[in-house]
Write a structure and sequence with these properties.
heterodimer, A: 389 residues, mainly alpha, globular, disordered C terminus, B: 316 residues, 2 domains, 12 helices, flat, transmembrane (chain A), DUF2157 domain-containing protein (chain A), membrane (chain A)
């Protein structure tokens, strides 16, 4: 028993694959219609921009209700236990509302249900944690929070909850390991182990048919664990961690134990990710290996600068242009199963908009206000990608 | 769900015959891994790093020997980029056109970014535009907008619009959700409104004439944000003109909403909702001075109201 109709979720993934074949011209419209009828998806279709609005304004409404009720009942909150029960009760009520909307309005990750689910789980968690003594170490609370959030992930398959669960787990490990006298030395290895383990687990089960309800959660877990792996083996991160954990901090972060080992990892891990990504044709691995390479170079420049930052930017920018240009030419004909031809999975619209946003940002940097003018005035949120969905 | 599993499922339901299944399976087996967008992203990042670096480099070594050589090299590179883009330029049409080279669009982008750097430097060192600072931004704005239409390049279009907004004193930094200018100054605010309205009209006229219709949403996003920011700023900064700005904001939001419904453009629904809500909330709290319970009640009512309204929009 899950929050969303599991058959519809399954049919949704199935139809996505079938729609790809239709775009490739492998299935005609009549066949597509026949398949759609056989594998119905009852969820309401939504749109990214509307989802953002629905999420924000649902949070506004929930916050208003919470504070209104809390103000009205504030006299009773002298008894702390009552306050915690109020939080739990309010959380359950929001959860029931979410359930009602999911069933009656056929919401599926449409903004409103995401907001209500997050609010419900957060309130219940706060209420339960509040019942425990307040002088425990942080990781104790994390261990109380984690099962509740994981239960939420199991029931709702919500992506923000997945992120929260990951964050809670990492915080718990952090806090627990640092309790030991040798914790600072141990922590990077534990985090590397955990991130590798979580990544392997996510890869193992992401395509399991019976776990399809959580497919997106496993994919998100892959990205998160790869990011954690890159950070936990990075020389700069380890050295800074060591520095912050010292009782008396000198002016500069001192050299760490096994510096050579961490330098090697900083360089070798992105290479290993690239090798694996290349062999297995895995997009997250390839993209994270490129980001890892960027991190490794930035780390190297930070500790062993040979030129000024501008020179590095120019040289690396130039090399990137040459490298990308060479690869684009090289992959005009498919090689080793790789091609430069865009396929039906390519995020054309998204990439185009990201490009426009970063170009605007770059141009704006060169178009500063002409000298001498006074620029006051308010800040306003704005911008956004221009596209029609 | 793996493609194999989907095929199995379809076959089980007798939706595919053996032949169709074999064809799809063989296509899947031979499927190539496309790194098209990854490579273009790398190219993009490279261009941004390179131009940012050169921009800083020039000012760092401004008094040193070899400095002029650097400027010369950049000018040559800039010219080469424009020459390359022109050489492979597709024939001009009012509809979408493409460069004949994979690198044409990127060369144009690099050329335009280098042009900005060089122009900024020339003004800094030789004050070629004297004290007519407006020209420093107006010139690239006109150049980029022309190039955008000639070469069909949405990135260069966005750069042109950014320069145009800079010209009237409004800075746009989308990555920082930043849209800033001295909107306490009525002159700046009115120019922002005038430019915004002019751009909206231009975009709609060009769209109607089917001249580069794929540019419409980009121009309207810039212009819409400009108009709405200016109107909200007017509400915040000029108490004596509240009625005028309140009515104008309402009209602007309703017009964008109407356009969004007609064009199925959800971004404009979100824009008009957010700016409208900010404006309305400001007025309510300014004049009614709501206290605790009333504030919470306002959140509940408006939160539920707008959620219901946006939910209805899901089917635009």
């Amino acid at each position: 028993m899950k929050a969303y109709n599991e058959t519809w979720v399954r049919n949704k993934y199935l139809l996505e694959q079938v729609a790809r074949w239709q775009r490739q011209g492998l299935l005609d419209d009549g066949k597509m219609q026949e398949i759609r009828e056989k594998f119905p998806v009852g969820f309401h279709e939504s749109n990214g921009f509307i989802e953002v609005g629905l999420f924000v304004f649902s949070i506004v409404a929930v916050s208003g209700s919470y504070f209104l009720l809390a103000t009205l009942l504030s006299k009773l909150f002298d008894n702390e236990t009552f306050y915690h029960f109020f939080n739990i009760g309010f959380g359950i009520a929001v959860g029931l509302l979410a359930g009602h909307l999911i069933n009656s309005r056929k919401h599926y990750r449409s903004g409103t249900d995401n907001a209500l689910v997050i609010a419900a789980i957060a309130l219940v968690t706060v209420g339960i944690v509040g019942m425990f003594p307040d002088h425990w170490p942080l990781w104790h609370y994390c261990l109380i929070i984690l099962p509740i959030v994981l239960l939420g992930v199991w029931y709702y398959s919500d992506l923000l909850l997945t992120l929260a669960a990951f964050g809670t787990l990492v915080t718990a490990i952090f806090d627990y390991i640092l309790e030991f006298s040798f914790g600072t030395q141990l922590l990077p290895f534990v985090l590397m182990g955990v991130s590798t383990g979580l990544y392997a687990l996510a890869r193992l089960v992401e395509n399991r048919d019976e776990l399809i309800y959580w497919r997106d959660n496993f994919v998100l877990l892959e990205w998160l664990s790869l990011s954690l792996l890159l950070v936990s083996c990075n020389y700069f991160a380890v050295r800074e961690l060591n520095f912050w954990m010292m009782d008396k901090r000198p002016a500069e972060a001192p050299e760490i134990a096994w510096a050579g080992f961490f330098w090697t990892l900083t360089m070798v891990v992105p290479m290993a990710l690239f090798y694996l990504g290349f062999r297995q044709k895995e997009r997250p691995l390839l993209i994270m290996s490129a980001i890892g390479w960027g991190l490794a170079l930035a780390t190297w420049r930070y500790f062993h600068p040979m030129f000024s930052l501008e020179t590095y930017l120019v040289i690396n920018g130039f090399l990137l242009i040459l490298g990308a240009g060479y690869l684009i030419r090289y992959l005009r004909v498919p090689r080793n199963g790789f091609t430069d031809r865009p396929d039906e999975d390519s995020p054309t619209e998204l990439a185009g908009n990201a490009g426009i946003i970063s170009t605007t940002q770059a141009a704006s940097g060169n178009l500063g206000p002409p000298g001498g003018m006074q620029f006051g005035g308010g800040d306003f949120g704005g911008g956004g990608s221009g596209s029609r969905y | 769900m793996s493609p194999k599993r989907v095929l199995q499922e379809l076959a089980d339901q007798h939706l595919l015959d053996g032949k169709q299944r074999a064809v799809i399976q063989s296509v899947e087996d031979k499927k190539l891994f496309s790194v098209h967008w990854e490579l273009r992203s790398l190219l993009y990042v490279g261009i941004l790093l390179f131009t940012t670096g050169t921009g800083w480099l020039i000012y760092r070594y401004i008094d040193q020997i070899g400095h002029n050589l650097l400027i010369l090299a950049l000018a040559v590179l800039c010219a080469a980029c424009f020459a390359f883009a022109s050489r492979y330029k597709g024939p001009f049409t009012t509809d979408r056109s493409y460069s004949r080279s994979s690198f044409g669009d990127y060369a144009l982008l690099l050329g335009c970014l280098l042009f900005l750097t060089l122009e900024g430097y020339l003004q800094y060192q030789y004050t070629i535009f004297g004290t007519r600072y407006g020209l420093v931004t107006f010139l690239p704005a006109i150049l980029f907008l022309t190039l955008a239409y000639l070469f069909d390049h949405r990135g260069v279009l966005a750069m042109g619009l950014t320069a145009l907004l800079s010209w009237i004193g409004v800075t746009v930094r989308p990555l920082e959700f930043y849209f800033k200018g001295n909107l306490k100054d009525m002159n700046v605010l009115l120019s922002a409104l005038a430019l915004g309205i002019l751009l909206v009209v231009a975009a709609l006229v060009l769209d109607r004439r089917r001249i580069k219709p794929h540019f419409t949403s980009t121009i309207l996003t810039f212009a819409g944000n400009l108009v709405l920011v200016a109107l909200v700023a007017g509400l915040f900064n000029f108490k004596e003109y509240h009625p005028v700005f309140a009515v104008s904001l309402a009209v602007a939001c309703i017009s964008f909403d109407w356009y969004a419904r007609r064009e199925h453009s959800f971004l404009f629904v979100l824009m008009s909702t957010f700016y409208g809500y900010i404006g309305a909330t400001y007025l309510v709290f300014h004049y009614l001075q709501l206290r605790d319970e009333a504030t919470y009640l306002y959140w509940i009512v408006t939160g539920i109201g707008i959620t219901a309204y946006l939910s209805a929009h899901r089917k635009v």
